[in-house]
Amino acid sequence: MEQITPKLLEDITNSLMLNLEVAEYELLAAEFAVILEQMRLVQVIAVDDIEPMHYPFPLSRHQLRPDTSGSVSDWQEISQNAPLVEDNYIVVNKVIE
Amino acid sequence: MKNLTIEMLHQQLVAKETSPLKIVEAAISKAKTTAKFNAIVTLLEKQAIAMATELEKLPVPTDNYLFGIPYAVKDNLATKNIVTSAGTKILANFVPNYDSKVVHDLNQSQAINIAKTTLDELGMGGTGLDSCTGYVYNPWNMNHITGGSSSGSVALVALGVVPFALASDTGDSIRKPASYTGVVGIKPTYGIISRYGLFPYAPSLDTVGLIANTVRDCALVMDHIVKFDANDLTSQISNESNYLKNLDSDIKKYRLVTIKAVIDGLQADAKLLWDQTVDNLEKNGITVATIDFPVNLLKALLPVYMVLSFAEATSSQSNLTATNFGVRVSDDHDNYHQAVFKSRNLLGKTVKRRYIIGAYALAAQNQIELFLHSKKVRHKIVQNFLDIFLKYDGLLLPAADGPAPTIAKTITHQLSLDDINNLTNDALLLANFSGAPSITIPIGLVTGLPFGMTINCLPFQDQKLLNIAYGIEKIVAFKAHCLDQGEC
Question: In this structure, is the dihedral angle defined by the CA atoms of residues B192, B92, B113 and B212, taken in order, positive or negative?
């Protein structure tokens, strides 16, 4: 496991597009120390020949079906919840330069 | 309306002693007089009155217990044309254009949604103190927490505002708060109630469930909402039906068991109540065996849960960027990164920390040691859990190590290594890891606060779970005891 350093925490925080205050970094570092210590205890649990459990049950309840085209949502219903609508389009402010 | 069950209200409706409008008006009035508990984020007065008025024109169907019955919905379940904010500022303006499947089914059954309820932000927290709209206070004592994340839903049922409420459970979010507030809370088998429209926290664990006053009411509501749903890729088919009709309180035939290490961790007063309850069961001809469970696996519950659920949250909630939806905080000259950074600053501190821990667990350098290993340990825990049911029908666990702690104590608590040595507080995770059905029922008072027992069965044995809970509920007679003592 990667060692927890202030630089690493800052990198992860940035990659998630989050800002933390200094006090939050301190609390986070303390929590990490506890979790990693707890995880070290978990690491010694033997799991040879045990498959990872992704979900409680196999996800086999769904049958594939042919694609069918159709409108599932009514424009009026969708647009009434949009903050701004113009000429039958939902207006989304530009965020990419 | 306090302590009135769905069945009682239905009988009054059938006997024409009341009407849908009167019931809804009473519920809304009570919601307003109990506003100080902060259980509601959106009161749906106009919509509820309008629907109740429509139902006034119809005859009361004797076979539909939910006709005209008010209920509440945890605010992480989508409701059409009603703000669904999941307790986070970044979704404060989010208005879905669809109902979650479970809400749709209840509305089809002519139940009346009167409120969206407060929750810990995005389902994360476990205390009822982590919503962007403030603390939820325990109806029994405002100095104490309700638990979470389904804090508003349990509080509204405990206060008697509604006879039932929808909720969700990822770690213990229905069952522990139910214990803290003296109501019944059920997390059915994973996937038998659709998750369509539930804002995800950790999809491999998230389960829709409900809060009510009695086990019978839980069975009754489940008859309306346990359905396979093609829109939920994790939806499961239950071969059971007619839960209410098949409810049977004769439980002497069942072999019940508890785990010694979990019981040993109870606080002294709670241990006393637990022992009295087990004695009471045995006097009624029900044997409760005690077994050991590998302590290293019990100690692994909390860290494995943190790694898996935080990692899943980091991924499943990565769309909260306020780009396509949500509250965008930006100036005109901001570029994409600046806008997203500013907007995501609306997320709460607990949520941010969990994302960071989750991202660490998912990083390529740590994934095998942390994420993958945790999934394998989860499997090992589940194998041991399922083995219990080779010999036994139901596993009885305390819902927590004691009654609801104070708010003052909770806000100063920090995660510590000692937390994993508390083998009682995290035992409810066994049902989330395995997908097993699990229900908390109140068994008495500890220092004037309610305390609950959680019953667990094999996955897809929800009827057996309800039957065991029903049998124990009758023997314990918590509500009757409270009323006798003038305590509830």
Answer: positive
Q: What is the pTM of this model?
A: 0.95
Residue range B224-282, pLDDT digits in tens? 999 999 899 899 999 999 999 999 999 999 999 999 999 999 999 999 999 999 999 99
Positive or negative CA dihedral for B363, B368, B369, B373? positive
For residue A51, the distance in angstroms to the closest alpha carbon of chain B comes to 6
* Structure-block tokens of residue B340: 């997203």
The answer to whether B92 contacts chain A (CB < 8 Å) is no
Question: Side chain identity at B276, as an amino acid letter?
Answer: Q
How many Å apart are CA B81 and CA B271, to the nearest integer?
Answer: 47
At residue B51, what is the residue type?
M
DSSP character string of B80-105: TTB---TT-GGGTT---SS--HHHHH
pLDDT digits (tens, 9 = 90+) for B143-174: 999 999 999 999 999 999 999 999 999 999 99
Picking from B368, B430, B294, the residue whose alpha carbon sits closest to that of residue A39 is B368
**Per-residue exposure over B323-358, b if at least 16 CB sit within 10 Å of its own CB, e if not:** bebbbbbbeeebeeeebbbbbbebbbebbbbbbbbb
Enter the ipTM: 0.91
CB contact under 8 A, A78 and B97: yes
Q: Does the CA dihedral B73-B74-B75-B78 come out positive or negative?
A: negative
What residue in A sits closest to B360 (Cα-Cα)?
A12
For residue B339, the chain A residues in CB contact (below 8 A) are 95
Closest CA to B191 of B175, B204, B176, B178: B204
Strands (E), B248-390: 256-259, 288-291
Closest by CA to B328, choosing from B306, B346, B315, B312, is: B346
Q: Which of B149, B168, B179, B316 is labelled catalytic? A: B149
Contact yes or no for A59 and B375 at CB 8 A: no
